[in-house]
């Protein structure tokens, strides 16, 4: 039996062949792995991920081979997108995490929405973002039929419509402030009864003269009231508000909606008391007669004049920061309710504790738990009127703990409100103020043209159906070529597929992309 004995050189040759085979397999594995990975270049920064990760969402831009093909760069073997880098981190993570999408805090909301729309993540994702970020749809409203009424309505309601609209808005704000200041100064002691005293003196002189002569005389109108600077200011402001109200009513697109508006009723209630009070002053009755019960109801309308202060709401419509504040408060109502509830509970607990500690020796101040709760709330809010205070050692210890716990609780809850305000303010701040003029001349006086599209710049109108918006890149020229072969076999399509790809202009999507703008 013969044995084959290998010499050392043959063993070395076998080992070299095995090493070469191992390296060849590694190269094949690496090549296969490389082919399954995709490089995405976003404005110069490269992202790399597996093809299977993107294929999980075939209806999106990155998950569909045909949709992303126009962006392929053959020279660098990558897909190039001239888009927002910071937003793409979250978009890529959406694929990697199987559907989780979060907007980075440092990315403007409108920019992030534009990127989500561009990469075609779908209407469900857009709806989720709109819900999380509290984005509201732009509601369509009617326009007046008559062209003159349309322009008048735009001037009265939209300060950005024209220079005339801006002037009207500025004058309206000045009138509101002037009316409020005059209303406040009129209540000063030296002015509140000054002109009524003059009229009363005139009435007393006429009464004494009539008694001396035994005559019946009629009391003339007291003109001193009409020379009052407060009356003059009130007349000017109310006249302006009346004209403004009538113009807004005449030009209203829908009288029914105008009547239903609470703000319009506030404007009306702020105007009526002036005319009622003026009618009383012109009734040629003396002041004693005005004080009778027959005129008490009418004189109460003078008290309603404070409603003119409510017209200050119009200032909120003119200043963006105030609108942001109003939106933040509205969105923070649940947090504010929690804050009030927490402070009330703490005030009740510490108030009850101090009540039992002080009741025996300081019962005059802490005579009930509700009164002690009032003291607790005042202490928690660091107001400290000093009208109620503990005098015992245990009571002062509870008072100190009440102040400490109250400060800590308010600090934590206020930080939540501040964070909410900052998010709302940041969201509103990134909206660009557009100075485009609003053109209404192009709309005919038809019933079909009564939409709100003519009263807002183009950037408003582009959001009408933002939820269902489909990016124009979804239908490329390549897909149009595919439609030609929809009824043919796969062979004819595969033969011309390379020609179609060569005809595509790589990375040239400037003519396809249209800006998608969102209302926040």
Automatic annotation (TrEMBL):
It comes from Didymodactylos carnosus. Its main location: membrane. It is found in: Membrane. It is a multi-pass membrane protein. One of its GO terms (cellular component) is voltage-gated potassium channel complex. One of its GO terms (molecular function) is delayed rectifier potassium channel activity. Residues 473-507 are annotated as: Disordered. This is BTB domain-containing protein. Gene3D superfamilies: 1.10.287.70, Potassium Channel Kv1.1, Chain A, Voltage-gated potassium channels. Chain C. Keywords: Ion channel, Ion transport, Membrane, Potassium, Potassium channel, Potassium transport, Transmembrane, Transmembrane helix, Transport, Voltage-gated channel.
């Amino acid at each position: 039996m013969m044995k084959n004995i290998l010499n050392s050189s043959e063993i070395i040759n076998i080992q070299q062949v095995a090493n070469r085979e191992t390296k060849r397999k590694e190269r094949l594995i690496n090549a296969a792995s490389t082919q399954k990975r995709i490089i995405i270049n976003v404005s110069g920064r490269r992202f790399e991920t597996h093809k299977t990760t993107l294929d999980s969402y075939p209806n999106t831009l990155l998950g569909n081979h045909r949709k992303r093909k126009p962006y392929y760069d053959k020279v660098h073997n990558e897909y190039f997108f001239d888009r927002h880098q910071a937003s793409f981190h979250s978009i890529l993570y959406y694929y990697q995490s199987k559907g989780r999408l979060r907007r980075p805090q440092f990315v403007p909301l409108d920019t992030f929405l534009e990127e989500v729309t561009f990469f075609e993540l779908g209407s469900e994702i857009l709806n989720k973002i709109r819900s999380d970020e509290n984005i509201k749809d732009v509601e369509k409203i009617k326009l007046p039929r008559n062209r003159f009424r349309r322009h008048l309505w735009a001037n009265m309601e939209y300060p950005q419509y024209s220079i005339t609209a801006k002037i009207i808005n500025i004058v309206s704000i000045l009138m509101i402030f002037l009316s409020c200041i005059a209303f406040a100064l009129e209540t000063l002691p030296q002015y509140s009864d000054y002109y009524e005293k003059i009229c009363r003196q005139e009435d007393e002189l006429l009464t004494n003269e009539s008694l001396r002569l035994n005559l019946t005389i009629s009391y003339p109108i007291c003109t001193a009231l009409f020379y009052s600077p407060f009356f003059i200011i009130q007349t000017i402001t109310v006249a302006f508000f009346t004209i403004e109200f009538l113009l807004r009513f005449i030009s209203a697109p829908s009288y029914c909606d105008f009547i239903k508006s609470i703000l319009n009723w506030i404007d009306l209630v702020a105007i009526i008391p002036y005319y009622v009070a003026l009618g009383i002053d012109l009734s040629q009755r003396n002041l004693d007669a005005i004080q009778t019960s027959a005129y008490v109801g009418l004189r109460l309308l003078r008290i309603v004049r404070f409603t003119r202060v409510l017209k200050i709401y119009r200032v909120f419509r003119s200043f963006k920061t105030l609108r942001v504040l109003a939106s933040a408060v509205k969105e923070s109502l649940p947090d504010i309710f929690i804050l009030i509830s927490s402070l009330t509970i703490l005030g009740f607990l510490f108030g009850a504790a101090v009540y039992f500690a002080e009741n025996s020796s300081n019962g005059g101040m802490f005579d009930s738990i509700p009164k002690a709760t009032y003291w607790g709330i005042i202490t928690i809010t660091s107001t400290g009127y000093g009208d109620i205070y503990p005098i015992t050692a245990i009571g002062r210890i509870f008072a100190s703990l009440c102040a400490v716990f109250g400060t800590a609780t308010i600090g934590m809850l206020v930080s939540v409100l501040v964070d909410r305000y900052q998010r709302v303010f940041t969201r509103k701040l990134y909206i660009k103020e557009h100075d485009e003029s609003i053109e209404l001349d192009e709309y005919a006086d038809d019933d079909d043209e009564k939409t709100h599209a003519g009263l807002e710049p183009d950037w408003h109108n582009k959001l009408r159906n933002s939820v269902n918006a489909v990016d124009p890149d979804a239908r490329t020229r390549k897909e149009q070529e595919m439609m030609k072969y929809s009824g043919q076999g796969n062979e004819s399509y595969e033969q011309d597929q390379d020609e179609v790809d060569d005809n595509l202009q790589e990375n040239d999507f400037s003519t396809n992309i249209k800006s998608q703008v969102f209302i926040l």
